[in-house]
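Write out the 3D structure for:
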Amino acid sequence: MKTVKDFELEKIETFSQLLQQMKDSAGFNAKFLAEAFEILKEMLRDGKCLKFLSFPACIIATGTRGIIRDFVKKKWFDVVITTCGTLDHDLARSFKPYYHGTFFADDFELAEKGVHRLGNIFVPKESYGIIIEKKMKEFLPEIWREKKELATYELCWELGKRINNENSILYWAYKNKIPIIVPGITDGAVGYQIWEFSQDHDFKINVLKDEQLLSDLIWNAERSGALILGGGISKHHVIWWNQFKKGLDYAVYITTATEWDGSLSGARPREAVSWGKIKKKARFTFVICDVTIALPILYKGLLEVI
């Protein structure tokens, strides 16, 4: 048994040192954050590891978007799996601002003023649906003239190319040719615009081409690892595909979801072990925390050691 040590914060100069001290001094959930740091450090340094990043769209409405963008810009991950809302928010915020709000706003009053509320983020209609519709009506005819059928990762590259904004996740995915796969592509404003465009154009999104890419990557990977933020379809798509190589070798889950309702979002890594989606001997941990709190701390620490 290891002795619990008190924090000595005056000795800490870096975030990586803070995370190391959490390992020795923190109790409760902070210990898992320190463990996540160690696993991610090993995973990102592993040159033979296929690295996945998955997350829900909501965090892209916050400043956490900048961390996800930097992950893609720095090529820390090989594959990104997310939801259509990520495309919505990344495209919208490349041209219009979102605003700080409050969880306790009068939602009926906001509706009257034409403001959507996403948690404590305020999103005016002109900063979301209106700008997305305008840009997609501009982009889609250009894309269609070049290609009549695309995988979602190819669509993301085409959007990033046209967004042409260094603050954009999609832009850096295009620049670095990192595939962003969106299994639920029609579940959002961008997806709706694609459907509407397809009504009078021979234009198709081929999600089976996404699956072929994942199959090729998985079957050729010596090892694989994942940073899984939140849950939903993005999380499941990562662990589903990794069962075909007998499971992930590294896995870090960060979420506030509970497992007691049987949800995939709240399921612990040990449950994935029972399905063969994470290896029995894998390095894995589960951090119960708001991603917008945990990720900046982890990212700052990793910047110092990667």
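The radius of gyration is 20 Å.
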